Amino acid sequence: MPFAALIVAVPLLVAVTPVAGQTAQSFQCSGSQVAKTRVLQDLSRMTQAERTLTPTRKVLSSHFVVPSTVGLAQERFTSRLEIVVRRRQPLSQGPQESSARIRLAINDRVSNLIELTGDRDRIAYTFVGLLTGAQRGMSKSVVTRLGFENYGQLGAVKAGRNVLSVVLDDAGVVDSAVVSERSSVAYTTAAPQQLTLTTPETMRVPAGTEFTIPFQLARRCERPDKPVTVAAGAMNKSPSSLTIVADAKFSGIGDGIQGVLRARSDQPGTYYIQVTMQGGYNDQTRLIAVQVDQPNLESGAETRVTLAVLFLALAGILFVLRIRRWSPSASR
Amino acid sequence: MDRFLAEGRGALIMIVRSRVLSGLTGVVAFFGVALLADGLSGGAAIAASTPNTVQYVVHDNSGLVNYDFQSTNAVNTNVDWPINVVFYNGASVDNIKFALENSYGANSTNRMHIPVTYYGGENHWDEDAGKKGVACPTTGRWTRHYRIYGGYGDSIYSQDIGYWVAATTHKDADECPPIGKRFYDSEEVEENIAAIWANAGYTVHNDLVSWSNPEPYRVEGNHTWNSNGLVTYIDVSCAACRSLR
Q1: Whether A241 and A160 share a structural domain
Q2: Pick from A188, A212, A232: which residue ends a domain?
Q3: Which of B53, B118, B211 lies closest to A15 in CB terms?
Q4: How far B225 CA sits from the closest chain A CA (Å)?
Q5: pTM of the complete model
Q6: d(CA B150, CA B167)
């Protein structure tokens, strides 16, 4: 990455508490916003032999030309990497020999990375992207098909000649990786962030009773609807007696969803609950500060005890007065 | 716990001075108490404190906090070390550990923790024990040690710098047996890692970005701070560079 570009990429500092990002804009779904995508380059002109990577042939590259990037938003270039991996047999047991990674880059700016690890019987894979979130899996097959689409790095695609490359690194677990002709670079009108999750920032609940955590899901509708799961967990693990009673699964978001999760804490205190939406496109997480108070029953009991003491005191006073009235001195 | 450990070590010195030490029983007791003290402390620096604000540093809405922590409690009295190295453009926890295996090939067992955020929401706690030059430096010796974090996908993806992970660094000394063990010099280990990559031809931006975590030299228990708060950024994708392995 050029130094100037990195300076532009200076990170932002965000205070841990209070948590930022709670007031995310909620998207509207009109049904007429389906995104258009134009493939700029794929690998269909290359033969399978040219698209095959091995421990001795680790790089393939293809050139493509973009006449002009004027009017194109840099954050909306995408890249797709699809591969068929043949696992090495037999695999040695040493960790140094049992991993591999395959990366796709546009002008050396990596936007698809697949990590592979393996032993004698299986191969495990990991990849992460803005459209998929983090994905982990395992295959016992000798041949495994993998792939995902991701948004490219800002500034990766330039006007003029560009280079699409795929590289096999550290091929300890791989005999060969055939890169599909569908691996490509494209431009889409769909924004990287498709989904939003909205929750309250703070809640106040009594201890010992189940309470509900409301949430709202929305999507842009630029991409097809997909199943999502909303789950909650306690962020502060000690001391915590918080129990999350239920997660929520949805076959899709549609025009938007309002739902609740259920939770309970038997101990008063301040808890941080993270609510996470996963499985659609961009994963989303929100943090809620939950103040768990002494239960109402207990405070009611305190009131009753106070009243009882007052009554007893009054009764005592009356009793003393009565004794004094009936005492011999009083009768005299 | 600190007082308990201090008393434990005081008792250890008394054992050393006793005649019991002249026999095999004394030696066994010596190591037994030492290992007990180490076990009780988790083999780690006692939780350290920083006057700095503990805060997220994000690239394109995804990132992590500017320190790692002794436990899953992100407060400035529970920190371990400041983040001081970022690997970007194709980095993952596994590929950085693989690349640095020649110099940092031993596994540490002592996990630290850090919150990672995606899209501006607090996401989850990542953890790592890290890699060292040697597993347990004996008395009078030291080793370099880094821990590296990339979230639940072992890498964070941001559109401005691509796949990236972040690391803390320091030296460990006198760990076996763990009598007077010390942890220090994070700046020197940052420079060492930067030099390894630079010498192989990779693009290294030394001390490029402030993550608001400077720690001037000071001693806090067995934890000696020394970090300038400027994070070194290392571009790990380079077709023409020499392999680190």
Answers
A1: no
A2: A188
A3: B53
A4: 22
A5: 0.78
A6: 9
Q: Is A328 helix (H, G, I), strand (E, B) or coil?
A: helix
Q: Are residues A206 and A285 in the same domain?
A: yes
Query: Are A163 and A97 within one domain?
Result: yes
Q: Say whether both A114 and A216 belong to one domain.
A: no
Of A188, A206, A233, which marks where a domain is finished? A188
Instruction: Name the pLDDT band for A274 (thresholds 50, 70, 90).
Output: confident
Which two tokens mark B80? 């371990």
Instruction: Indicate the length of chain A as a whole number.
Output: 332
Length of chain B: 245
Residue B214 with chain A: CB contacts under 8 Å: none
Tell me if A128 and B160 make a contact (CB, 8 A cut-off): no
Same domain, A252 and A314: no
What pLDDT band is residue A12 in, cutting at 50, 70 and 90? low
- Overall domain count for chain A: 3
B70-76 contact pairs (CB < 8 A, 24+):
B70/B42, B70/B44, B70/B45, B70/B112, B70/B113, B71/A238, B71/B47, B71/B113, B72/A236, B72/A237, B72/A238, B72/B113, B72/B125, B73/A236, B73/A238, B74/A16, B74/B115, B76/B49, B76/B50, B76/B51, B76/B52
Residue B73 is predicted with a pLDDT of 84
- Greatest Cα pair distance, chain A, in angstroms, is 126
